[in-house]
Amino acid sequence: MHGGLTLAILVCENLNYLYNVGTPFETAAIENVNFSADKSEIIGIIGHTGSGKSTLIQHFNGLLEPTSGKIFVNSMAFTTCVKRWSSSP
Asked: Which of 21, 30, 54, 71 has its CA 20 to 30 A from that of 4?
């Protein structure tokens, strides 16, 4: 808590991801995902096979970069976090 407010540790803003961009097989795996998670929350991601659950998680661990939209970890853009982690000794 910071001044009575709970700070989100993970935020997705308008997250989109397309597979096979620019081909006849282009497919939207996730579309306009928006959510935030606070430190004390436990979150489950459920859905049918092929609904984008694994694709979403792969964004959180840096395996995929969004086609559009942003991910923030502790208020820092995720791409900045990845660069910082990869440059650490």
From this structure: 71
Residue 34 has pLDDT above 90, yes or no: yes
More confident residue, 62 or 25: 25
Let me know the angle formed at the C-alpha of 86 by 80 and 89, rounded to the nearest 5 degrees. Answer: 130
Q: Is 58 exposed, middle or buried (0-12, 13-18, 19+ CB in 10 A)?
A: middle
Cα-atom radius of gyration of the chain, to the nearest Å? 15
Burial of 69 (0-12, 13-18, 19+ CB in 10 A): middle
Which range has the worst mean pLDDT, 33-37, 49-53, 62-66, 74-78?
74-78
Extract the tokens encoding 88: 């650490």
Q: Classify residue 23 as exposed, middle or buried by CB count within 10 Å of its CB (0-12, 13-18, 19+).
A: exposed
Q: What count of Cα atoms within 13 Å lies in the side-chain half-sphere of residue 72?
A: 15
